[in-house]
Design goal:
This protein is mostly helical and about 210 residues long. About 55% of the residues lie in helices and about 10% in strands.
Length: about 210
């Protein structure tokens, strides 16, 4: 075995007669040397920091963790459905921003587009059936448009129970001013896909809707 290190040697000294005895203050020096050796050994040990977070919002933490980690679904139908929801939400934001400048909601814009395609007018029930997003209160929706002078409503002479809505010149003018900004927004959002992929995507979406009751 090798010689003990200096920090662990006994704290003795030799006098002029050759005898070995303790020198003054040797106890304190021995303690200091031992503490130094302990520190040397502890410096080589790995340092572990434990952070404890105290919260009573366990559900919120779980949801935050789930959102931060991409979820891989084992069901392709579910994955496609969720991607459609995400895409719809993101793409709708661009249209909402354009319509906001004219104080129009997406459903109001949808009604005006429907009536522009039917100059002779449509019954209120038929408008509700053609809407992309169903509105549970179609009457109130038409009320707002009529108050702005964008549409008109009248009862049919043959059937007084039927109310027909028609787009007004002001409504046509408003749609005309929105056509280009809306198309520009669509091109920015989807133009990078190209005509062929857009056509294929449209066909797939049509086919998926055909199987839904």
């Amino acid at each position: 075995m090798g010689h003990p290190s200096a920090s662990l040697r006994p704290c003795y000294d030799t006098d002029s007669a050759g005898t070995t005895e303790n020198y003054p203050g040797h106890h304190n020096l021995c303690e200091n040397r031992k503490e130094s050796a302990d520190l040397d050994r502890s410096a080589a040990l790995p340092f572990v920091l434990t952070v404890v977070v105290v919260t009573n919002n366990i559900q919120g933490v779980k949801e935050a963790i789930q959102l931060d980690q991409p979820r891989v679904s084992s069901h392709p139908e579910e994955a496609a459905f969720l991607d459609l929801l995400r895409a719809t939400d993101m793409l709708s934001r661009g249209l909402i921003a354009v319509l906001k400048s004219e104080d129009l909601s997406v459903t109001q814009y949808n009604v005006l587009r429907i009536l522009r395609g039917a100059p002779e007018g449509l019954p209120c029930g038929e408008i509700a059936n053609r809407m992309i997003t169903r509105d549970p209160d179609i009457t109130r929706l038409l009320d707002r448009l009529e108050k702005r002078g964008l549409i008109s409503r009248s009862r049919e002479t043959k059937d007084r129970r039927m109310v027909t809505a028609r787009i007004m010149p002001a409504g046509l003018k408003l749609l005309g001013s929105l056509d280009e900004p809306v198309q520009t927004t669509h091109r920015k959002q989807l133009g990078h896909l190209g005509r062929n992929r857009l056509r294929a995507l449209t066909e797939l979406l049509h086919e998926s809707r055909s199987k839904v009751g």
